[in-house]
Amino acid sequence: MTAQAAFAAALLKPEAARPNGLRAWNGSDPAARFAVYRNNVASTLIDAVAATFPVVLELVGEEFFRGMAKVFVLAAPPRSSVLAHYGEAFPEFIERFEPARTVPYLADVARLEFARVQAFHAADAASLTAETIAHAMTKPDLAPLLRVICQPSLAVIRSPFALVSLWAAHQGLGDISLVDPYVPEDALIVRCALDVQVARLAGGGATFIQGLASGVRLGEAAARAQAETADFDLSACLTTLMRFGAITTLQPPAGNPR
Amino acid sequence: MTLGSTNICFVRNAPELGIPDPPARAGLGLKPQHYQDILAIRPDIGFFEIHAENYMIEGGPFHHYLSAIRESYPLSIHGVGLSIGSEMPLDDAHIDRLAALIERYAPRSFSEHLAWSSHGGVFLNDLLPLPYHETTLARVCDHVDKVQERLRRRILIENPATYVEFEASTLTESQFLGELVRRTGCGLLLDVNNAYVSSVNLHRDPRRFIDELPLTEVGEIHLAGFAVDRDAAGDPLLIDTHGAPVHAEVWQLYAYVLGRTGPVATLLERDNAIPSLRVLLDEAGQADRMLLSASRLLREQRA
To answer: Which of A35, A220, A234, B117 has the most crowded CB, counting CB atoms within 10 A?
Structure first.
């Protein structure tokens, strides 16, 4: 093992002995000094996780969160120095983290928070205006064949819990005591310009948008949503997407200019 | 391969290369919580500095605000993820991201640390120490050469805050930095807080450390706060926190440095417990006043 390999390994193992070859000017045990690095690594990474998952932190409290995040950062340290993308594995870690089982929706809240941070930093794209989209929808023969390209920031999360209501209650939007956590909710996360929006999708909306994102044509995506939820409201769902500036391109089928 | 052998010459303050150093004024680290205040009040400040890795993202508000602020202020870019002191080869993808960021924002300077932060593909998010001897010197020189060639500019290397020494070291930190500058043509980012913190922690004389550095090659200065801890023997162990105002001892050492270097662009670093923009501007004002005195002194000496 090289010197830095040994140093790095000792940083990530709280109980490991300090690496060899260190000294202090006063002959004191260098372990106390090495501990500064060990503390820095863990605490700055825990801070990074805390910055991405503030609602998870609120739900379980600072002390529990930092303890849980410490286990996570030491077991799954970042693979990149770009920490904006660190924490993707945190929701799954939470699911397996036994002491967190008492808050069953914690992992899904973490999924929503991670998606928000990714949306915040995602590539920018100009949205189509409501007029452009409305105009395209007036052509009943062409509209079902359109491919709808959404913002690079867009994400959909389906949850068996009241994900959006729980999250919103922690933004000062709504009363947490009125939220029944066991009502399934689907979340839309998208950023157009500067603000990330989080919205609850009506029945079928998640299937519809996930269909569009996978490259399925508008008509087929709507059919899938309808098959899942009989009263899927296509026009309401498109209005939601337009309101958030989520649609960037309407791609007519080849050979059929708009 | 060193730059001397490739005939690439990095000249200090060389506007013809489009890479002048930041102005000899005080600057502040650019923090997202201050974006809107900065654009609203347009403070009179010498420059802003960003951490490169925070902007290695595709889009969104960070780039939006940085672009707007860059239109009105000089910028310097400071990297924390290049891991120049690493035993392992540098990460080419990271250097590419850096090159793209530098291309986009045309900063006055780019700096990195005499430290390592990654190993075996894991990013440790700290600036870790290395022993100072011929082998590590040759490796760090190779890494600096590679970065300078790829970025096509002179970079500045910052002296670290350290808490331990290595039995394997045969060179002092100032000898190591001096040789690095001589062999690669890089410049120095003199972190006066780090110089003070390391001097206390390693029981050396901070002024002597400063005196031994190639001070003509200092392209930027950093000032920051520290916290006080104790080592296993009860002796003071200072921790570089970037979370407190600059201490009196560091201001004194800064005055000493300016007496030797003349005015040099100076960053007030605050990355934790970040106060309001106003508080940071006041601290920068103190550095600006000292920079002004240093300029006056220089003019008097030349007159």
So the answer is: B117
What is the rounded (10 degree) CA torsion for B77, B78, B79, B85? 130
Instruction: Tally C-beta pairs within 8 A across A and B.
Output: 142
User: Strands, DSSP E only, in chain A?
Assistant: 22-23, 147-150, 155-159, 185-192, 195-201, 247-251
* pTM exceeding 0.90: yes
A137 and A211, same domain (yes or no) = yes
Q: Is residue A110 part of a domain?
A: no
- Asked if residue B241 has pLDDT above 70, the reply is yes
The rounded distance, in Å, linking the Cα atoms of B112 and B80 is 6
In a domain, B303, yes or no: no
* pLDDT exceeds cutoff 90 at A182: yes
Tell me what the pLDDT averaged over chain B comes to.
Answer: 92
Choose among B259, B261, B184: nearest CA to B21.
Answer: B261
User: For residue B209, which of B217, B227, B197, B224 has the smallest C-alpha distance?
Assistant: B197
Instruction: Using the predicted structure, report yes or no on whether residue A158 has a pLDDT greater than 50.
Output: yes
Q: For residue A20, is it within any domain?
A: yes
Above 50 in pLDDT, residue B5? no
A138 and A180 belong to one structural domain: yes
Q: Read off the pLDDT of residues B62-72 as tens digits, 9 standing for 90 and up.
A: 999 999 999 99
Mutate to test the interface with B, among A34, A36, A47 (most CBs of B within 10 A): A36
Chain B 121-150, CB below 8 Å of chain A: which residues? 121-126, 128-131
A158 CA to chain B: closest CA distance, Å? 25
Q: How many structural domains does chain A have?
A: 2
CB neighbour burial string for A203-235, b if at least 16 within 10 angstroms, e if fewer:
bbbbbbbbbbeeebbbeebbbbbbeebeebbbe
Q: Among A21, A33, A124, select the one facing B231 at the smallest CB separation.
A: A33
Q: Which residues of A touch B87 (CB under 8 A)?
A: 2-5
Domain that holds residue A46: 1-103
Residue A13: per-residue pLDDT: 93
Partner-chain contact A22 B229, CB within 8 Å:
no
User: Cβ–Cβ of A30/B81 closer than 8 Å?
Assistant: no
